[in-house]
Amino acid sequence: MSELPKLISDLALILIVAGLTTIVFKRLRQPLVLGYILAGFLAGPHMPYTPSIEESETIEVWSQIGVIFLMFSLGLEFSFRRILKGGASPIIAACFIMTCMWGMGCGAGYLLGWSPINCMFVGGMLAMSSTTIIYKAFDDMGLLSRRFAGKVMSVLILEDILGIVVMVLLSAVAVSNRLQGAELVGSLVKLGFFLLLWFVVGMWAVPTFLHRNRSFINRETLIIVSIGLCFLMVVVADSVGYSSALGAFVMGSILAETVEAERIDSAISSIKDLFGAIFFVSVGMMVSPADLLAHWQPIVVLVATILVGQMVFGTMGYLLSGSSRADALMSGFSMAQIGEFAFIIAALGQSLRVTDGMLMPIVVATSIITTFLTPYMIKLARRISGNKKESGERIAPTEKKSRRESSPLVAFLRKVVLQTVVYGVLSTAVVSLLFVSLLLVCRHFFGHWAGNAVCGTLVIMLLAPLLRPIIMKNNTSREANLLRQSGRWGHVFVNLTIVIRFAFATALVYYVLDFLSPHRWYWHVLVAVLVVLLIVRSRWIRKVSMRLESTFLENLSRRENTGPAYARQLRGRDLHITRLPLPEGSLWGGRTLAQLHIGGRNGAHVAAIVRDHRRLNVPGGTTMLFPHDVLEVVGSDPSIEQLRQRMSAEVEPVAQDQADPMQLQCIEVGSQSPLTGTLIKDSGIRDQYRCMVVGVEDRRGNMRVAGADHEIRPADKLWLAGSHDQLAKLKKILSP
Question: CA torsion sign, 168 to 174 to 175 to 178?
Answer without folding.
Answer: positive
